[in-house]
Amino acid sequence: MEKWLGAFMLELKNISFRYNRSKWLFKHVNLAIGQGEIVGMYGKSGSGKTTLAKIMANYLSPAEGEILIDGEKMNNEKYYPVQLIWQHPEKAINPNWKLSTIIDEAEGLNEEIFSLLGIQKEWLNRRPHELSGGELQRFCIARAFGPNTRYIVADEITSMFDALTQAQIWHAFIKLVKERNIGVLAISHHIPLLEKISDRLIDFNKLKSCPNITN
Amino acid sequence: MNIVYKFRDETNEEIEKIKSNFLLEVNHLSLTIERVGKGSDVEHLHVIRDFHLNIHQGEVVAIVGASGSGKSLLADAILGIHPKNSLIEGNIKYENQPLTEKRKKRLRGNDILLIPQMTNALDPLMKAGKQVESFIKQKNKQKIVKDIFQKVGLDPAVYHQIPSTLSGGMIRRIFIAMALASKAKLIIADEPTNGLDAEALDELLFQLKMLANDNRGIVMITHDLEAAMKIADKIAVFYAGETVEIADRKNVRKAGKFRHPYSRALWNALPQNGFVPIECSQPSPAEEIIGCSFASYCPEATKRCGTEKPELREVGNGEMVRCFYA
After folding, report:
1. Which residue in chain B is spatially nearest to A187 when comparing CA positions?
2. Residue A46 belongs to a domain with what CATH number?
3. Regarding beta strands B186-190 and B217-222, do their DSSP bridges make them parallel or antiparallel, or are they unpaired?
4. CB within 8 Å: B67 and A161
5. Chain centroid offset of residue B137 CA
6. For A32, phi and psi rounded to 5 degrees?
7. Separation of alpha carbons B228 and B62, rounded Å
């Protein structure tokens, strides 16, 4: 992408990253995700997929390059419009909080999201250890759908679940995303899954090694 | 001619004997956790309700179940390292002898080995090679370890490294190397495939198979039905603390489907098999279940399923199913 053409998309331009002074994890990564589009990304473990996800959601800043959200550069706003859903839900929530508090982190959540994701009302009064991982992950997904969310990065969000839970979660997730016209980067190493859920597929290793590709 | 017939009879007998000689046999196993609730209430959590499993030497049996269904406690129950506030009932037999707590203590770590789920289970300060060495009784330990490292695809330099410098995939290989180095006949692998990419996964499954070909019994506890279908000889499907089905992998491949409705739902939910979700969750362990545990979600459930508990019954060839209509 040489120039922003006016379409709504999340753009990564020439992103490079390395931890401290170690060798470059990736250099000049270019990627664009359109609104309402689900992009599937696969790659070997340890290749830096999660690091890229963290950069996209503003947990880390890139060493080089910039990220444009719908053509704008975002700077330390209150609510970052790109939300990350982590692989392990139990590590992404405060174990001492009630689930109703956890869900309040996304202010102004629509009530109907609960029924869509299969969250039962009585779960809200419980604490994290009283729910299973699959149930907690539904909360983490719901929390990512705040009213100002425009893009979501889903990093291996179902890899710890059995096939049935996985199918349940993804069906609800896709419905929500399409309804709200949210762009998604889905990261997984399970290619058959990505083929089912995404509009297009990207090999992260190719993305790393072809600096001039603009998708 | 007579002699030939006699010989055949004998071999058949021998085969029968080996067939009925299970390495591990688990019948009607249940594990209940007692928890003190509000006031003086005592809550009983039925984590495992009715579990069955049998395994021969040289066989891989996969226990497939949802996450949070108590699969890991199953391994703990067999090894006798379950929580202190839990009660185990049922029969566990190891090499046709009842597996008592005393015997568990003697056998675990020697005859029965656990490949843990966590990759932080190694000693953080001890060299990887030395940790594998501790399983070897013969002389010339270092050479044996290096041979084993080659077998599992580890660089000889790993011998001198400490665990924090190794990746998750490499640590799993160290676990396999330990199993190879040990004399254990039964190996219980708890979620060995978690967090591996496709290539590393296939490699690990191959190595588990290698352990089985070494005439050991492998119990693989996993949520990944796909991985189980790649190497297991038998698949035990675990739902709501019960074994709902024990299926022969080859028969499943041939028929293209499982017998029990829950296993079928699990199969149909795989991305490559339709990706069909059905509205279903595990019943809570605090609940008392009357009738079939899957009845409220089963598309083929009848009145009988809601009132009468189906028993696990033989359907031939070592296969079993817990359903009235399968």
Report:
1. B197
2. 3.40.50.300
3. parallel
4. yes
5. 27
6. -135, 135
7. 6
Q: Is A30 among the domain residues?
A: no
User: For residue A6, is it within any domain?
Assistant: no
Give the residue among B253, B245, B240, B257 at the shortest CA–CA distance from B296: B240
Residue A14 domain-assigned (yes or no) = no
Q: With respect to residue A161, please indicate whether it lies within any of the assigned structural domains.
A: yes
Q: What is the pTM of this model?
A: 0.85
> Domain range holding A125?
35-60+74-209
The domain tally of chain A equals 1
- Tokens standing for B3? 């002699």
Local confidence pLDDT in tens for the 326 residues of chain B: 455 555 566 677 766 666 678 999 999 999 998 888 777 788 888 999 999 999 999 999 999 998 777 888 899 999 999 988 899 999 999 999 999 999 999 999 899 999 988 778 899 999 999 999 999 988 899 999 999 999 898 999 999 999 988 888 888 899 999 999 999 999 999 989 887 888 888 999 999 999 999 999 999 999 999 999 999 999 999 999 999 999 999 999 999 899 999 999 999 999 999 899 888 778 888 888 899 999 989 988 999 999 999 999 999 888 999 999 98
B91 interface with A at CB cutoff 8 Å: no
List the structure tokens of B142.
């270092």
Q: What residues contact residue A201 under an 8 Å CB cut-off, 6+ apart?
A: A39, A40, A41, A42, A191, A194, A195
Mutual angle of helices A163-180 and B261-268, in 10-degree steps: 50
**Cα gap A201→A41, rounded to integer Å:** 6
Sorted by sequence, the CB contacts under 8 Å of residue A177 that are 6+ apart come out as A36, A38, A152, A184
In DSSP notation, B288-320 reads PP-S-TTTTT-TT--HHHHHSPPPPEE-STT-E
**And the tokens for A1?**
């992408």
Dihedral angle over CA of A176, A178, A181, A182, nearest 10 = 60
Most A-contacting residue of B71, B165, B197, B225 (CB-CB within 10 A), to test interface: B197
Instruction: Please answer yes or no on whether B195 and A45 come within 8 Å at the CB atom.
Output: yes
Complex-level ipTM = 0.81
Bridge partners (DSSP) of residue B36 are B42
In terms of DSSP bridges, do strands B313-314 and B60-65 run parallel, antiparallel, or are they unpaired? unpaired
The nearest CA of chain B is from the CA of A109 a distance in Å of 23
Phi, psi of B106 (to 5 degrees): -75, -40
